[in-house]
Amino acid sequence: MSYEPPSDRPSEGTPTTDMSGSTPQGGYTPPPAGGYASPPPGGGYAPPPPPPGQYAAPDPYGYPPAQAQSRNIFLSYLNAVIKPTTANYASEVPNAGWGKTLIGVLTASLLTGLFILAVGASIEPNLPQIEQQIIAQDNSPDVARVTINTIRAIFGGGGAVTTFLLSLVSFFVGAGILYLLARLLGGQGSGFTTHSYLLSISYTPLRILLLVLLFVPILQFLALIALPLYQLFCAAQSMTASQRLTPSKALAAAFLSLLVFVLLGCFCSILSSLLSFGR
User: Is the pLDDT of residue 184 over 90?
Assistant: First the structure.
C-alpha cells in the first residue's frame, strides 16, 4: 500500500475560492438559510405595492392614477377652483378628513353671517327714511313699524346667527343629496367623508368670492348666477374622483341636485304659507 498525497484539485460540485475566501467568477452562491420561499398560491408573484403617496384606487373609467399631494389647504382651494380637473381632485382624496372639511365650511358660514350684519349696518341709517316713505304711501304707521322691525330682525344679530346655521346645514344637506344621486347613478367610490371634503374645497372659496362680489353692484349678476353654476360644475368634477362616475353622470347628479333644492324650497314656502294661513 502506497501513500498518496492529498490533491489540490477541488472535488466536483465544490466552488473554488481564492486566498481571500471569496467565490471566484463561475462559482455558485449557496441557498439562503431556510431555503427559498415558495411562490404565492394562485400562480405567479403578486405585483409590487404602489409607491408611497400614490392614489391607487380602482378606476373603471380609465382615469390615470394621480399622485397624492399633501398641500396647504389654501393651495387646495386654489387648485380646486382654477383647475377643476378629475386628476386634480383625485390627488386630494388621500388628504380627505372631517377636520379640513369643517374648517372650510364653518369659515364660509361664519363669513356669510358677518355679511348679513354688514348689510344690516349699511341700511340702518336709512331705516327712518324708509319708515316715513311707507307711512306716506299707505298712511299706516303699524305697517311701517312691522316692516322696519322685520328688516332689523333679518339683518340683525338673530338673522346673522340664523344665516350662519342655515349655511352650515345647507352644505351638508346638499352634500347628502349629491351623494345619494351619485349612488343612484352608479357611483361606487369613496365614502361620505371624502365626498364632502372634495366638495368643500371648491365650495369654501367660491362662497367667499360670492360674498365679496355681492358688495359690487355691477358684479352681483355674476355672483348670483355664474358662481353657483360654476360650483355645480366643480361638484361634478369632484364626484368623478370621489364616486368614480363618468363625467356625464356626474354632471347629471350635480344639476339634478339643483332641481331637488328648488322643489324643497317650493315645498317649504307652501308649508310656511299654509301654517301662516292657519293662524
Answer: yes
